[in-house]
Every structure is written in C-alpha cells, then in structure tokens.
Amino acid sequence: MELKRVVVTGIGTINPLGTNVQEYFKNLNDGVSGATLITRFDTSLFKTKFACEIQGYEPEKFGFDRKEARKLDRFCQYAMIAADQAIADSGVDLDKIDKDRVGVVVGSGIGGIETLTQEIIGFSEGGNVPRFSPFLIPKMIPDMASGYISIKYGFMGPNYATVSACASSSHAMSNAFDIVRLGKSDIVITGGAEAGITIPSVGGFNSAQALSTNNDNYRTASRPFDKNRDGFVLGEGAGILVFEEYEHAVSRGAKIYAEVAGYGMTADAHHITAPHPEGHGATQAMKLALEEAGINPEEVDYINVHGTSTPLGDIAELKAIKSVFGESVYNVNISSTKSMTGHLLGAAGAVEILACIDAMQNGIVPPTINFETEDPEIDYKMNLTLNKAQKREVNVAMSNTFGFGGHNSTLVLKKIK
Fold it and tell me: pLDDT (tens digit, 9 = 90+) per residue, 307-318?
C-alpha cells in the first residue's frame, strides 16, 4: 500500500505566552517568560508558589456562555479554543468535506483534574453528603476534548485521546499522522490540552521533587541547561493542528505550513519518573524518527528539546542528542521553549511543534532563556540558542517529548517540496 503524504494546514493555541499563534510566536521569539505567581489557589502551604498561568482567563471572553462553561473542564475549554483557531486557519469548507473522513485525536496527561479536585473538596466540606455534579465524569475524563471537538463540528472519523504523561500530545500527533498516511482519514484534528495548575498537581509534583522551588526568582526559574536549574515550572494551555493528506490539501488550495516526515516512539524501561541517565530510549526515538523521515542527522536545522530544566533530564537528553548526531551536533540549533512557556505536560509536544513551525516559516529559532551559569556536565560548544533568538533557515525541525513512565516521542517536520 502506498503511504500518503501528510501536511499541516491549520494551527491554533492558547498558552501562557498568548491566546493565539501570533501572540505566542512574538513572545516566544522575544524571549518572554510566562512565569507568574499562582492565582488559582492559596499557595501558602506549598513549596512552589508560581507557575506559567494563562493570565486573566475567563471562558466568556472566548465565546463560552455560562451554561456551556459549566459542562467543560478548563483543559477542554483550552482545547476547543485552539481547535476553533486551527480549523478556521485551515480554511477548510465544512460544508464541502466528507466529515466521515475527519478524525480528532487530542492528548492530555491528566484531563479534568481541576474539576475532580473541586468536586472532592466540595464533598469533604459538605458534611459527607454525596452530591456530585452530573458533569463530573464527562468533565474529568481526558477523551472529552476530542469528543467535544467532534460534536461541535460533526467530525465522525477516528476519535479518541492519548494519555502518556508529558508525551501525550506527541503520541496523539504520531497517531494522527498514521491515520492520514494510511488513508483512513483525509484530515485529523490533533494536538493536546492541559490545565494542571491545581492543588494536587503542585502538591504531588512538589512531593516528587520535580518542580522548581525558586520562589524568589520565579520569572527565571525555568532555566534549562543552567547549572542552578532545580526543576520544571508548570504551564497550561493547548496546541491544536490540522493534519491533512497532501493531495486533499492541494486540491482545495490550502496553505501548507510543513510536512510531517516521521516519528519515533520508545520506552526507557528504567524508572517511573527519572530518565535513563544515558538517554537510551530518547536516542532510539530520534533515530527511528529520522529513519522514517529519510533524513540524515546533518540535515536537521533545529531541535526543540524536551528540556524541562530538571537536573537529570537536561543532561540525559543532551547525551542522547550527541549520540544520534555525532559531530554534526555542533551545526544544529537546539532550544527549550519550556524556559518561557513552562511545562504544559500533556500539551507540551503540540505547543512545541508549533514553535518548530514558526521557526521554519520565519527563519527564527526561539531561545532558551534564563541561562546564567555553565554546568560542567554540559558541552556548550553545542548551540543551545541561549537567551536570544537566532536567525537561521530551518528546512528540517525535530521535536522531542518525554514523559513520566519512560515514554519517549520524537517528531520530524520538513518544508514542503
């Protein structure tokens, strides 16, 4: 069977750096930090008091009426906002396409954890009267972002969620790629959404010693590759893309942002939270992605790394990259946009693929901000794009996303030819 070509024809996002792709890309390339003090709950008892929140978010500002907003957890609202943008951006005529051949695959690491938290707190404070919202279950389960998008638009192709911690949206996009290239759908709406700035998330990650506790310098706390990095900074939001079969896109005169060239998915088989110290699983994911894409390491111009700003994770990933790229590693731009957005958990991969697309479209590699002090375990001859964006023609971009449980996912994009 001949595999189809898959391209990106629509993009949308809401995240700490912007409520649309234009705002996001500008702040990304300007090196803006999205970190703020947490406003969602009282942090006085928590070790970490900051995160990358979407400031001033109100559902009504994005077209949700009160009744509709009550039915949707915040993560699902974010997904709907980004999906609306991406579908509109694609220019697809909804009255002319075959909706049986449009799928939706949207990942989320923890789904409606905000709703679950509110309901349990309400139960514990309500005299143990078992009164729960009838919307609790549909608001909580991670597949509802995909479900609501399909319901709103009438898309009746494959519809589900992927859940693999911080690799969730990268796995979603890999699945979407397969669905389209195997000819099972003409279009798949894909990406990820997360709204994890909640009491149990912050408390749980604190207990796991995963979050930065640099409260005195929270604006610069996300500092990948810096000697004084002490953990990641939580972020939130959604990134949604329209993956479309190439001939289908060309036939309707769609603009094409990039071609999806290949992916790799592996497991560390090492530890529930820590990466393999030599990055073996990450190495294999990158090799598989490049092999499938038919691209040699020296052809890659930009790598958007997982780069969470954890002491172990950053080093393991750079070791993996050096293992894959050899001497050509010194010719590729590398950056971690989590230094600005924070870590969007299950939505990270999709929001970071958007950063790759912007780099390809505009010839600007976004920076790794907040760097101050060299780590003797890191080779700074690598171009880590420290503190300032750099101009560069980007024809091939790679995105790495790894998750608790040892999940590794790499996607490769290339300019359309």
Answer: 999 999 999 999
Q: Which residues are catalytic?
A: 166, 306, 343
> What distance lies between CA 226 and its chain's CA centroid?
22
CA-CA distance, 158 to 227, in Å (whole number)?
A: 45
- Check: pTM over 0.70? Answer yes or no: yes
Residues 328 and 303 sit within 8 Å (Cβ to Cβ): no
Q: Are strands 187-194 and 102-107 parallel, antiparallel or unpaired?
A: parallel
Q: 272: how many CB neighbours lie within 10 A of its CB? A: 10
Go through 311-328 and write b for each residue having 16 or more CB atoms within 10 A of its CB, e for each that does not.
eebbbbbbbbbbbbbeee
Sequence-separated (6 or more) residues with CB below 8 Å from residue 45: none
Please spell the DSSP secondary structure of 247-293, one letter per residue: HHHHHTT----EEEEEEEEEE--S-SSSPPTT-HHHHHHHHHHHHHH
User: Minimal CA–CA distance to 402: which of 325, 292, 321?
Assistant: 321
Q: For 41-98, what is each residue's pLDDT tens digit?
A: 999 999 999 999 999 999 999 999 999 999 999 999 999 999 999 999 999 999 999 9
What does each C-alpha distance from 214 to 124, 232, 369 come to in angstroms?
32, 10, 16
